[in-house]
Design a protein that fits this description.
Shape: elongated
Order of helices and strands: HHHHHH
Structural class: mainly alpha
Oligomer: single chain
Distance between the termini: 56 Å
Largest sheet: none
Radius of gyration: 22 Å
Number of helices: 6
Number of domains: 2
Helix content: over 70%
């Protein structure tokens, strides 16, 4: 398995990701990101089974080094948290019959948030009483 080109592609992506998630970066890190992105792209292209599977996200990786130079480590501006919130929005939308979807999602989120606040307050009160 480790002789397969997909393994080399995966390793180069893991290495690239490892540099990108650091809390701080240096100029050398940015140069390394640029090199690793090119290595990953070449390694991905070398995998026969991946032919035709390049997506826009592969192109966006070509901008990583410049973006890190301009904006700093990606963990300061990535969208993982917002993507996770889409799950909540989707859950609210699925509870409707697709009529008045925006209102239903807002109502679902409001009730969910209120329940979380009540639950948190209940935990705080129980903690105070046991101490």
């Amino acid at each position: 398995m480790k002789a397969h080109p997909a393994w080399r592609s995966w390793l180069s992506l893991v290495r690239l990701f490892g540099v990108c998630v650091q809390h701080s970066i240096s100029v050398a890190d940015i140069e390394l990101v640029d090199d690793l992105q090119l290595q990953h792209s070449a390694a991905f292209d070398a995998v026969y089974e991946y032919a035709g599977l390049k997506r826009p996200k592969h192109h966006f990786c070509a901008h990583l080094a410049r973006d890190m130079w301009l904006f700093g480590p990606p963990r300061g501006y990535w969208c993982f948290g917002y993507e996770a919130f889409n799950k909540v929005i989707k859950a609210g939308a699925q509870r409707t019959n697709w009529r008045n979807t925006t209102f239903s999602i807002m109502q679902y989120w409001s009730v969910r948030s209120a329940r979380a606040m009540i639950r948190e307050k209940h935990v705080q009160l129980n903690t105070i009483q046991t101490v």
